[in-house]
Each structure stands twice: as C-alpha cells, then as structure tokens.
Amino acid sequence: MTRMTPLLERNEEFARAYTPTALGLPAAQVLVLTCLDHRVDPAIVLGLRLGDAPVIRNTGGRVTQAVVDDVAYLAFLAEQLSAGVAIVHHTQCGTGFLADPAFRRQAAEATGLSEAALEATAVADPHETVRADVERLLAAPQLSPKVSVSGHVYDVATGRVTTILDARYPAAAASRLSPGPTDRRCWSPGSRSACPGSCRAAGGSPCRSWSPW
Ligand SMILES: [Zn+2]
After folding, report:
1. Which DSSP category does 112 fall into?
2. How many CB atoms lie within 10 A of CB 176?
C-alpha cells in the first residue's frame, strides 16, 4: 500500500470505461496556462474533457521562458490552428507569500533559487499579474502571430472564472511576418539558425516569424 494505491484504483475504474482519443487538434482550440495549485485543476474548473485542450501548469501560472518555448512549439505542431492561450491566475495563490521579502529570503536559502526568480513567480494580486503576463506573452518574439492571448482570474472562494483581458493577437505580428534583411534570424523549433530567406524552398522548416535576434 502506497500513497499511489488509491489513485491507481481510481485509474482502474477509469480504464474500464475508457475510449481512446485520437491524436489530433485540441477540440477547444485553447491552451490553458494556470497554477499547479491542487484547488485549481482546469479539467474540473473549466470542464475540460480528454482531447479538449493542452494545459501548462507551473507555480503561479506565470509566463516564463519555458512557457514561451512550449507555446511556440505547440503553435508549430498545430500550424493550421488559430489557437488561443488562456492565462488563468487565481485568488489565494500560495505564491503570494513570496511578495514578502523576509519569506522570500528564507525560501531562497532553503531551495537554492534566487530571490529574483522567486519574486517573479509571486501572485499577490492575480488581477495585476495576469495582465502583466498577457503582455509578456504577447511581446515574446517566438509567439506565432496566429496565437491570441487572454487573461482570466479564478476565484477560489466562488469557483467563478472572470475574464480580465479579452483575447488579443500580438501587435507586432505583421512586422514579424515580413521577411527582413539577411542579418535577421529565423525562428524554427529547436534552432535559431540564420535564415537564408527561403527555408521552405530549401526543404527546411518554413519561417514562422522573424525577429532581430
Ligand atoms: Zn497558485
């Protein structure tokens, strides 16, 4: 008997009535980014079913470089999809403690993480941080111009999700799509090699966005 035993029993029950979902585009055409808090499971809060939506969860549901990379890769996989990213921050987030310098210092000493990194994950006011993270993701050079971003707050006390910022596409999308001078670089998943300006013709990954890296 381990801590996993009751969960594996639940899985047995699940598997008995299971119907496999074919690999394909997510039905909801939305990627959810939210906190890893056990009270904030998007499958339950948003009624997601298998095959509905990819979900990224981290501390606070913050837009980190790792999140930007994942979103870029998922957008590449679903190229024909006009996908949206829904960032959902929540009230009573445990990361709120990290806004307190003394707690942050203690946490940094205990974990070896830098105080700056810990501070960056803090969600003291989810209305404020979700706005900041929508802007951060929209400003990321790797973000496909076909991907929109919206911001929401989940209230742990009421179970209600409120939209704080409606879905918006990156403002600089048009300029990033235009091929630039040859000293610009091409974004393709896993590499940022210099772009010859004719990736598709050369048999490589097609250019998806341009940015002056
Ligand atoms: Zn949280």
Report:
1. -
2. 21
Cβ(91)–Cβ(155) under 8 Å? yes
How do the domains of the chain map onto residue ranges? 26-187
Higher pLDDT, 104 or 79: 104
Going from the Cα of 39 to the center of ligand 1, the distance in angstroms, rounded, reads 9
Confidence of residue 172 (pLDDT cuts 50, 70, 90): low
Give the global pTM: 0.78
Instruction: Look at domain 26-187 and name its CATH class.
Output: alpha beta
- Is the pLDDT assigned to residue 107 strictly greater than 50? yes
> Alpha-carbon distance 95 to 42, whole Å?
18
Which two structure tokens, joined as six digits, stand for 63?
Answer: 């837009």
Give residues with Cβ within 8 angstroms of 63, minimum separation 6. 33, 87, 133, 136, 137, 140
Ligand 1 centroid–CA 135 distance in Å is 19
